Structure formats: structure tokens, C-alpha cells
Amino acid sequence: GQSRVEMYVQSAGDAIPPEVADQIFEPFFTTKIAGTGLGLAIARNVAVAHGGTLELSDNRNGHVRFTMTIPIQPESIIAAEKSSKLSSRLPGSDPAAKGLLVSLENN
Asked: How many Cβ atoms are within 10 Å of 45's Cβ, its own excluded?
């Protein structure tokens, strides 16, 4: 299979009700008073534009997770590993956290 990067955002909040979950990726749909309803729609469009996906991958009370998956080429990984722009974790994050932040830029 093709290599990919998987990123997720997770919340310990309440589950998203099914009638809301069915609409959350629709532009301008929001349940927030000051919301625009564009955040998830834009994020999904970015993922799709890069051949990936964005989905509500877990939706339980205390465990709500959105997962974005983007395909990558193996040569991009090699270039990132050789770059000084590679960081094993975000500054200020938990040192025990596992993950990889890769910044790929055209020079």
C-alpha cells in the first residue's frame, strides 16, 4: 500500500449527537453561537485536495476523535529525515508523547 501520514485531534468531551455528526462536514453548519461552520469543511477539502480523507473516526462520550489521512511519497520521508526542519515532537509537548512532526518545504 501507499505510505501515508495520519493526524488526529482528540477530545475528552461529550459524543457528537448522530443528527449533528451527519452534518458536521457541511459548509456553514454549526452548533456554536459564534461559529462559521467552515472549519471542518475546509479541513476536509484540504485533505481531499491532497488525495486524503478527514473523518470522525471515534465518537464516544469522553473520546471524540477526528482523523486526517494524507498519502505521501517515500522520497518525501527520506528528504524530511535529512532536513534540519524535522522535529520528533512539538515544542512544549509531553516528552512521552509519540509522534512525528515533519515540515516539508520546497527550497
From this structure: 14
